[in-house]
Specification:
mainly alpha; cell membrane; MetI-like; membrane; two-stranded antiparallel ribbon; 2 domains
Length: about 290
């Protein structure tokens, strides 16, 4: 267990080093392309210094005056992390629940369902977001009732609709993954043995299948994380959300980018690290972390 914890911590350090190096690289393109090794190393040092001296995290206003990013930064960060983590957990929950109930369906219906899932998964994310917004606007025009705000302002930030829309495609992906993993696990000999003892299918799914596919679910959860991250920029633009990506685009200082990405990665890392340890304790299986 100690070795596992040490390995997880070491990977966290590697990721932080990667964030620092990549963030410093963005500083070479602020005023054109300047591939200067000295400038790059100076930017790396500046980022590391800022991590230990948060007062150094400042932005420059139009009047050339410099201001600390705090406390306004926390509003951007808190809003984005709530949307992101809520969408992630909702995607995992919906995907697994739908997969569980789908496995209770007859085999013929399940095959048809898999085909439809492949089609839905192929829908562009932009199409999904615009389609939901269009539906709400048309409903508002027809009834005069606005179900949910389709865009946000700094003082009035929507939560429910952005979380719902951001989790649609990942939920479909996790739904499909859950079915594939459960189908593969259900074909193993021990399942046939337990079934021969007269246990109900619901018991097999909830007690044996879900527990044994948990490591693979966690591994595939990383692809959901990457999917959500890749959509955050365009998502915030379309919903007029003042989130962390908007903050980084507005203030593209290497040390601010590195600080923002590190804080954004921290809760994600803690979740996967905790789940990795929990799964190892209860199932004895190791997760590729």
């Amino acid at each position: 267990m100690l070795r596992t914890t040490y390995g997880i911590f070491l990977k966290f350090i590697y990721v932080i080093i990667g964030i620092v190096l990549l963030s410093a690289f963005t500083g070479l393109f602020r005023n054109g392309i300047h591939l200067d090794l000295f400038v790059y190393m100076n930017s790396v040092g500046h980022i590391i210094f800022s991590f230990f001296n948060p007062d150094n995290l400042v932005v420059q206003a139009a009047n050339m005056a410099k201001y600390s990013i705090f406390p306004s930064f926390w509003e951007f960060y808190r809003y984005s992390i709530i949307l992101f983590l809520s969408s992630f957990f909702l995607s995992i929950l919906i995907g697994i629940m739908l997969g569980f109930f789908a496995m209770l369906l007859p085999e013929k219906i399940l095959r048809v369902l898999k085909g439809h899932l492949s089609f839905l998964e192929a829908l562009p994310d932009l199409f999904t977001i615009v389609a939901v917004q269009f539906f709400i606007i048309q409903y508002f025009k027809s009834t005069g009732m606005l179900i949910f705000p389709v865009a946000g302002t700094f003082d009035d930030r929507p939560y429910f609709l952005p979380i719902l829309v951001l989790s649609i495609v990942p939920s479909i992906q996790m739904f499909k993954i859950s079915i594939l993993l459960m189908t593969a696990e259900a074909s193993k000999p021990y399942i046939e043995f337990v079934r021969s003892k007269g246990f109900h299918r619901t018991y097999l799914l909830s007690v044996h299948l879900l527990r044994n596919i948990a490591p693979n679910i966690l591994n595939h959860g990383k692809s959901i994380i990457l999917f959500l991250l890749s959509n955050m920029v365009i998502f915030e633009r379309l919903f007029n959300i003042n989130g962390i990506t908007t903050f980084m685009i507005t203030y593209p200082e290497p040390n601010i980018i590195a600080f923002s990405l590190t804080l954004f990665y921290l809760p994600i890392f803690l979740f996967f690290a905790s789940m990795n340890i929990i799964i190892h304790i209860f199932t004895g299986q190791k997760v590729v972390f």
